[in-house]
Amino acid sequence: MRNILLLAVLAFCSTAYSAVIYTSDGFSSTIGCANVCGGFWGDSYTNSYTAELFFLDNDSSVDGISWVGDRFFDSDFTVNIFNTTVSGLPAVNPLYSFHIGENYNKFETTNLTALFSADISKITLFAEVPYFVSIFNNTKEADNPNLVWTWRSSYIAGNEGPTIATKSGSSPWQSTFLGDGSVGFALEGKAVQVPEPSSVVLLFTGLIGMVFVRCHRGIVAAR
After folding, report:
1. Other CB atoms closer than 10 Å to residue 49's CB: what's the count?
2. Degrees to nearest 5, angle at CA 114 with 109 and 118
3. Sequential pLDDT tens for the chain (223 residues)
4. CA 141/CA 149 separation, integer angstroms
5. What is the pLDDT of residue 149?
6. Which residues contact 183 (CB under 8 A, 6 or more apart)?
7. Is 79 within 8 Å of 94 (Cβ atoms)?
8. 64-79 burial, b if ≥16 CB within 10 A, otherwise e?
9. Looking at CB atoms within 10 Å, which of 59, 178, 186, 215 has the fewest?
10. pTM above the 0.90 mark?
11. To the nearest 10°, the Cα dihedral for 186, 99, 41, 158?
């Protein structure tokens, strides 16, 4: 049943955007969970932030993101993508920040969770470069701690990654654990060909050569 649901969800994501190019280790597990999933707060009520490390296999143009979290109330989301510091944690300031607001699709998957999907402005992320992604709900729900929005996660036995980082308010990021936990998210886009520096130099040299030849021909013709 969970596999059928996952296929339907991936089809849902792929029709809205270019294609699914990355899924976190916890994505499929969190989509179909009921009351067994864990989770990390990413909510203005507690001023708590969560981010997960990821790598792409190819240089990619990214234009959409999906994530799994509590379905209980409508939210105002911000998605941040961070570079990684030498200590293996998210940078202080995001590399990219997208205020999604309420401009997202919501597909309820269980009595607890929903899949959220949204467009983001097109960005290029590079292969094998460590990035962190963070999902944050800006909505405060009327002094009810039971309605703190949770980014759903799952535990995967034998998995040696990824890294999840958390922080509260303006405090520094800290690694929550290394190992078998993963929050649910996926990226949509397509692989791109990024020119090598040597290729750019060759192209530039070729253009200069073409201009020189055209100018030279013009001078000869004028004689």
Report:
1. 22
2. 125
3. 444 344 444 444 544 447 999 999 888 878 877 555 778 888 877 889 999 999 999 999 999 999 998 887 678 899 999 999 999 999 999 999 999 998 999 998 877 789 999 999 999 999 999 999 999 998 866 555 567 788 888 876 655 556 899 999 889 999 876 555 788 999 999 998 766 555 445 444 555 545 444 544 454 455 5
4. 9
5. 85
6. 24, 26, 30, 39, 40, 50, 52, 67, 68, 135, 151, 152, 153, 164
7. no
8. bbbbbbbbeeebbbbb
9. 215
10. no
11. 20
Which pair of tokens denotes residue 3? 């596999």
Query: Strand 163-168's sheet: what is its strand order?
Result: 96-101, 77-83, 131-137, 48-54, 163-168, 174-178
Q: Are 23 and 29 in contact (CB under 8 A)?
A: no
Sort 50 into a burial class: Cβ within 10 Å, 0-12 / 13-18 / 19+: buried
Cα distance between residue 103 and residue 124, in whole Å? 22
Distance CA 77, CA 74 (A): 9
**What is the distance between the alpha carbons of residues 115 and 172, in angstroms, rounded to a whole number?**
29
**Whole-number Å distance between alpha carbons of 75 and 32:** 21
Cα of 60 vs its chain's centroid, Å = 12
Question: What pLDDT does residue 42 have?
Answer: 84
